[in-house]
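Figure 6 in text form: structure in, sequence out.
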């Protein structure tokens, strides 16, 4: 049996974008047993995916690295796919003696890899295509996660007393102001959703984004509930599944919503949605910039200005289009039954 280790990307969004390649590889190699090594956040995500038979958690300290090396060595993997570009991600399978180690070159780690796929060979394609090259697959499906029943039940209990429909806002982004639509824009949009469409606005984010999300929820006012930092990743995904539409920045939350099958309106500054856009069936991208870059600083002035140029009215219009689109899809599906 082919015993395979996948070293996961460290960011939630990157992990989601790697899922299509792993799904395609698993379909082509159904006899393989797959284990995923991931940091705590992505590890929660991978436990909702069908590919891994086992998810190993990688801590952040030096001692955690050696612990991971020992765990990997004990499992006697035959090959490893190393998804991040970092030096540390290649160290674990190298020191554990995994005989075949595949990854992208660079970061002074090529000598630890037995084969590499040049990152620039997919430079004009979506990031998911880079992972496809690494796994050697061409046809990529959409990412699919399966949310545990307990998380779904917990999510329903959290909103049991709230009036539908629900609309989600994800105002944070780990990259900082360069990827965050201004707070005042989210507030204005939240009020428009409440006033024109009714129901409740649900605000989501990581524990580090609690204060940001709390301010926005407070400013939107009645009919708004802040869930930032109050759920695990599975419950976050389950709550977003209850929403008609989720409005996001270019962030891990955006990719999580798309993987959960939620209609997404994504606000982009100067990062390129053709490379890092959400992978979903019902997606709208909002971007008012002729500049498109992959890597930007946390405080890029062009990015901040590009985000400011997108109005709440524009986003609300795309939300309406998504509602019409998903309603039509539901009608067509019901009619076909």
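Output sequence:
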């Amino acid at each position: 049996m082919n015993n395979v280790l996948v070293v996961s990307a460290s960011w939630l969004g990157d992990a989601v974008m790697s899922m299509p390649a792993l799904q395609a590889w698993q379909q082509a190699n159904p006899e393989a047993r797959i284990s995923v090594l991931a940091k705590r956040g992505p590890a929660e995500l991978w436990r909702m995916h069908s590919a891994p038979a086992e998810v190993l958690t990688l801590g952040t300290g030096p001692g955690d690295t050696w612990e991971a090396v020992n765990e990997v060595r004990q499992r006697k993997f035959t090959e490893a796919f190393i998804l991040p570009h970092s030096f540390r991600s290649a160290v674990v399978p190298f020191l554990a003696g995994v005989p075949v180690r595949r990854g992208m070159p660079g970061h002074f780690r090529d000598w630890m890899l037995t084969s590499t796929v040049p990152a620039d060979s997919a430079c004009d394609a979506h990031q998911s295509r880079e992972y496809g090259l690494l796994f050697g697959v061409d046809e990529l499906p959409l990412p699919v996660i399966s949310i545990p029943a307990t998380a779904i039940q917990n999510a329903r209990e959290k909103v049991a007393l709230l009036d539908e429909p629900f609309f989600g806002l994800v105002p944070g982004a780990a990259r900082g102001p360069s990827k965050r639509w201004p707070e005042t824009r989210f507030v204005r949009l939240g009020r428009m959703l409440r006033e024109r469409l009714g129901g409740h606005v649900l605000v989501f984010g990581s524990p580090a984004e609690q204060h940001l999300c709390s301010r926005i929820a407070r400013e939107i006012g009645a009919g708004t509930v802040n869930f930032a930092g109050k759920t695990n990743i599975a419950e976050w995904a389950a709550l977003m599944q209850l929403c008609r539409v989720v409005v996001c920045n270019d962030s891990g939350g955006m990719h999580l919503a798309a993987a959960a099958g939620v209609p997404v309106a994504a606000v982009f500054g100067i990062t390129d949605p053709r490379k890092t856009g959400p992978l979903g069936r019902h997606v709208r991208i909002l971007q008012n910039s002729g500049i498109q870059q992959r890597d930007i600083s946390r405080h890029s002035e062009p990015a901040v200005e590009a985000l400011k140029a997108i109005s709440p009215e524009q986003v609300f219009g795309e939300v309406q289009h998504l509602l019409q689109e998903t309603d039509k899809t539901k009608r067509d599906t019901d009619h076909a039954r």
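Caption detail: The chain has two domains: 3-135, 155-336.
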